Description:
Layout: E1 7-14, H1 20-25, H2 37-52, E2 57-69, E3 72-75, E4 89-91, E5 98-100, E6 106-108, H3 111-124, E7 127-128, E8 136-137, E9 140-151, E10 157-166, H4 173-176, H5 181-204, H6 218-222, E11 231-238, H7 246-260
Parallel strand pairs: 1-10, 1-11
Antiparallel strand pairs: 2-3, 2-6, 2-9, 4-5, 7-8, 9-10
Amino acid sequence: SALDGYNVCLFAYGQTGSGKTHTMLGNYGTDGADLGLIPRSVELIFNHAEKLKETDWHFELEASFVEIYNETIRDLLSDSPSKDKVHEIKMDKGGKSTFITNVTTESVETPAKIHQLIQKSMKNRSTAATNCNEQSSRSHSVFRLKIRGTNAESGAHLSGILNLIDLAGSERLDKSGVQGARLLETQHINKSLSALGDVIAALARRKTAGHVPYRNSKLTYMLMDSLGGDSKTLMFVNLSPMEESLGESVSSLRFASKVNSVEIGTARRSQRIDLSSF
């Protein structure tokens, strides 16, 4: 759909330790059978883009990878993310798309380039041990692939965005056993997940209440151009099989039920390409 001119969001949601990062990245160093959504999605896009050359379409892909840690944006593709510049979310001049200032963007011409970027981002992402997960992701990570297409014969143009979001794990404060800096992280994580829920709830009642609180968190503000009636959204909800995680699993399923009930309208694309024959 992103290659077809839509703005797309794919989320992985669930408690810490339930497999969200594995869903998005999979296992690196394998033969490819256990890769996650990000490498698989990009490879699929490259395959379709290559086939569409037969119909005179040419595509340019541009990737960025950031995390939102304690409501601060960090560039995961920077050579020194801990000493990085300040990153702010801005709207473009047309007021239709968001962008992040001072963030690294990489032109992507092969799937191998994406693998290199993922490896770099994995080294830079914030993780820490909690009682719920000894290697818990303490931030939301957002992989964004901007797609621009041009048809050499007709002169037609299209643009789409693919957002692949690995949400930080939700944790109950009484079970996570965190203190100090880890406690602050958990509070920020839970607050931003709550803000995401508020946006989804607002989208569900948009016809009667027009305001959607995108600006209540960095995550929802960043994804403002890819949530709502002009986009397509899919959420994976990950559950832990452990008996002691029952409470969190029920909570995740309730959230999933709320998300599933939302009808955000009919998505619109910038330009139609017939992909049915591919």
